[in-house]
UniProtKB/TrEMBL annotation:
DUF4209 domain location: 131-211
Organism: Scopus umbretta
Protein name per the record: EMARD protein
InterPro entries: DUF4209, ERMARD
Segments crossing the lipid bilayer: none
Gene name tied to this protein: Ermard
A Pfam entry, by short name: DUF4209
Amino acid sequence: MALSDSVTTCLSPPVHYMICKLGFEKKDTYDITNILSENGEVCWQAVTEHVCYLESDHSVDYIKSIRSLGPVCESVNLHFKSLTKEQFVIQYALWFHWTNYTELFLEVFDVLQHAQTTEVVLGIMKLTSCLERALGDVYLLIGKDCPFLLRDLLASEQLAVVFGQAVMNVLRLFIGSPYGLNLRNVLWHGFASPQEIPAKYCAMLLFLTAGLGQLLQTYLLQTKCILVHRPYVIFMSLEELDVFPGKYLTISKFLLCYIYLNHETLSLAEELVKLSSFVLKPMLPFWMGALTAFKQSRYADCVILLLPQLEVGLRLLFTTTNKCPNRLLTAEVKFLSKMLAKHLDNEEVNQLPAVLEEPAMASEFLWDFLNHQEGPRIRDRLSHGEINLRAFPREVANQIVAFAITLLCRFSDEDMFAFKEHVVIKPLMNCASCYCSRFHPISRLKKQVLECMKSIHLWSELPTVPEEHIQTIKGLEGNGEASALILMMPEIISQLQQYMPQNRFSSDDPIDSVLTERLLTELCDTRICTLYSPRPVLEILVVLRKISTQCHQVSEQVIASTELRYKQWMNKTLRSRQRHNYLRMLNSIKFLSPVLRLILVLITLELVNIHLVCKKNPFDYHQYLKFLKSVLQYTENLVTYTSPEKNKWDETVELTNKALIKIRKISDRKLMLMQLAT
């Protein structure tokens, strides 16, 4: 990994020229009054005159345009430096209100007064994130579905209607186009070091944002429209993100350790940053800035600085181990996903997981926190302005910093053994090495199953009328459908029992609630590889999750209906037909409860064996998916029949009986498949 010492830039020669040199080629001194009126309005016509176009197709000539705007950017930077904070607030603060984050732009002004390179880069990253979010809000004044990518947003007709095409062309010189400076992508993907980003481009973005605010105000007055800001994304269930918890954590049966990113841990991390081969030397200020931000409780700043450095460190590992050094300097669509993929573009095996030693430690964590749709998707949401930076949770920053420390340790020299064994570092390494995915569809299905089981378990605690009342209902005794249902349950369980942990069912009650809950918990604790799940597995998971969702809805409906009807029974407000139907419901759910538990067992067994069967058995997925979809159809019908609007309890028993017949038939075949697979 000596390459980390030899790399001086991650910018390709054309991009390096574009960002670091092109805007400095014209030495003219530009008069700020050409683009700024006496009353503080941006003279957009004077700005857009610097945009040059190709004669061939009249598209933007990015090279000439950026060269021409170089002196303008410098003039704006000097203008801002000549202002006091009070003067800037009086003249410009109003024009940032449309972004819904005025104070951020005031912070960027403060940064420009000192021009510390790391803070300038951080300012650009936060500014572009906030600007993208605000532009998306403007887009929704006219359009419906806001584009996800900044380049598509800036190229949209909707923004051209509000601001004018010439204005949007100016903005695309700085952000959103790979042919321009592309500052947003270059920084968020970790290609530029602090010293490679001129402060004058940060000043120009600040200036342009104020100018956009002026144009927007004119548009809103003319159209009588009201700009509505979309709500921020809020991280729910923060405990699910608690990989490196700030509490007592069981490391083994005999050791409890308190893990927290305290001052001592962060001081050690600063030493590791200077020594680890995971860190590119030009990027060292970003790492130190991130750790400083964490110490100062600036958790959003910490993560914004750190995420691109994790990517560039992994990109260094990826390009070195796969012998493709040229890709260190290239920005590719979804490159992080490509780095974590099983195969390269040429179908050769990706060597990065082997270098990481513990794929679960890095790949699963990164997929969970950055990529999986049901995960926090921290980088996407931060870079697109979806998160309130003012209320960024420490819990999330804690995880990213702790994970970064484990990578610093893992890719360090042998003589750094003392660091890895340190009392505050070793627990972090232990946590990382046993990490299991929490947001892969497999993990989400496990959670769904257990939550559904807890819901069904509540049935036994529901209030009910005495059994003798149920027995008085004509037609319930000797019900053939119910009798057949009761007989089939033990048969299906006996077929599947050899694939379950021992002593999980009793002969008296083959699908006992407590025993089933223990079984499902034990099965869900089984480690299942989530990396590189093939398409057939993902297709099956989609259906299994839908089945689980429907079962849970049935359970919730049964609970709500039972509680309501019991209350009405006790208050004697039920009519004769309603009383009859209520007692039929109580009779039906006695059979329904074990059936739902059985379905959960089948789902979980399928989940545990899914990779094994798929790997060793080329059976017809379409046929098996057809069966699963028939089970899904049963559960969907069950949701309808058990809804308060329908209350079709006799039909529920009949429907369930037919479904069990199908399950019994397919379980025979599944047994054969599992035997072949084991």
